[in-house]
Specification:
Order of helices and strands: HHHEEHEEH
Structural class: alpha+beta
Low-confidence stretches: none
Number of helices: 5
Strand order of the largest sheet: 1-2-4-3
Helix content: 55-70%
Radius of gyration: 39 Å
Number of strands: 4
Strand content: 15-25%
Oligomer: single chain
Distance between the termini: 64 Å
Length: 148
């Protein structure tokens, strides 16, 4: 759309500079030709600047737009994350602590069977007669986003 408008403006400018009411001298013809070229150059420069601004704006919009993820991929990803942060039932142990017997998750079992990175802040140690025992506290796991 811009090109036909620009072409018509250019043709009108050329026609207007070629018509004269009285016979012109060479000085006036040169002046008219130069004036016409200046007008044409100004119009072309304005059109180029506008086109550059529009391209820059379109590029910014394209960078910000995220392509929507199909619903089935969102659900699959969510279920994968949910499954990953579930503490396996097979890892539940009854461990004596200074507060009595508690149900905890055995550290070695969790490291083998958990599908996500385990939080180190939940790892606890308890001294027994047969050496230290390591376990994960269920309450701490729940606070870290796990289903325990």
């Amino acid at each position: 759309m811009r090109r036909p408008i620009l072409a018509s403006i250019l043709s009108i400018a050329l026609v207007a500079t070629s018509f004269t009411a009285a016979p012109a001298r060479a000085d006036e013809d040169v002046f008219k030709v130069i004036a016409g070229l200046v007008v044409i150059g100004a119009l072309a420069n304005a059109a180029n600047k506008k086109r550059d601004r529009e391209r820059a704006r379109a590029a910014q919009v394209n960078r910000r737009v995220e392509h929507p993820t199909p619903l089935y991929q969102k659900n699959r990803r969510a279920t994968r994350i949910d499954r990953a942060r579930v503490a396996p039932q097979r890892c539940i142990r009854e461990q004596w602590t200074h507060r009595g017997n508690r149900q905890v998750y055995g550290a070695r079992c969790m490291q083998r069977h958990a599908q996500a990175q385990l939080p180190q802040t939940c790892l606890r140690q308890n001294q027994t007669n047969s050496g230290p025992r390591y376990f994960y506290a269920p309450r701490c796991l729940r606070q870290q986003g796990w289903r325990a």
